[in-house]
User: What shape does this take?
Amino acid sequence: MGLNSVPNSERIHIGFFGKRNSGKSSLVNAVTNQKLSVVSDVAGTTTDSVKKAMELLPIGPVLIIDTPGFDDEGSLGALRVDVTKRILDTVDIAVLVVDITCGKCEADDELIKIFTDKSIPYVIVYNKADLIAGKDVPYKPVTEERHKNKIAVSALLGTNIYELKELIGSLNTEKNTRRLVADIINPGEYVILVIPIDAAAPKGRLILPQQQAIRDILDAGAYAVSVKDDGLLDVLQNTDIKPALVITDSQVFEKVNMIVPKEIKLTSFSILMARYKGFLDIAAKSVKAIDKLQDGDKILIAEGCTHHRQCDDIGTVKIPKWLNEYTGRRLSYEYTSGGSFCDAPGKYSLIIHCGGCMLNEREIMNRMKAAYKQGVPITNYGIAIAYIKGILERSMECFKMF
Assistant: This one.
């Protein structure tokens, strides 16, 4: 997979934070060597997050995020601050930009506290060092322990930008070393991927989990065989392919389960994604809350991406239908998509999340933690569907942890 095709969810997210007019946008432009963000002397020029995918060694593929000023004021300013707070749930590394002529302010101290509370590695950058030329620069690039995460730069002149990149790259970030499927298959084995092509399927391409599964299977030295759900039986009965594993789209889980012989392992892309993102165990335990649902309970169905919903959409149509049929209860549903999640998870009796392929691991885990803190069970599409259809145990056998 080339650099340009690395999905944003697989990149290390680096956010630039600070008060208005501290030079965040100028610094982002200097680090990316592009005019990515609009720069102005007017405070509050950046009104929404701006993102740029690039490579930053020694980290590798990263997503640079410029954010609105954390000290913004008024009703519109409060909305901008909310944007920044949402970004804080997604970043793996934070860069706090401080105007060196003013020093840290209350908003900067608040950000540092958030970085600490959320366990986000961070560096403090004292920008506009060119404005104090000839004066003592308090934080030069040094290696002493007390200065290890502080540096003075000039975004205007490019002073210490290279050193800043090196400092960011040196921060200890734990990359996701889990595999999507390669660790549960052997070289030379066949894996069949069941991919429905219907009105909801994107034109001319596969969705991200399907692409990632194919690549991971090939990396493992195994063979990926992709079929539509209506061609699965023919492949199993009329070819010499004997799969060690079948991976299916969740919406045809029940149909595929009836076709695939019991001796062949079966799971779904969504369940694989839950394991890959680090919340399979939580999701598998939480799904049992379905049996405790009562009339009037609220269910949140959350998606990490935004797309045009079809008439038979899995999140807004199929899952509610199957859940109503399974429980026999009168349930109510609410929906979120994209970067918005929910401010009050506690009002729900259950949260069912998508596989999260478009979200990085930190954002997924922060959503899990938000639900957990308020005692709300949270599972995902594939696990919920497998449970409702009575095939969860089978779908987890390939992990040997059910």
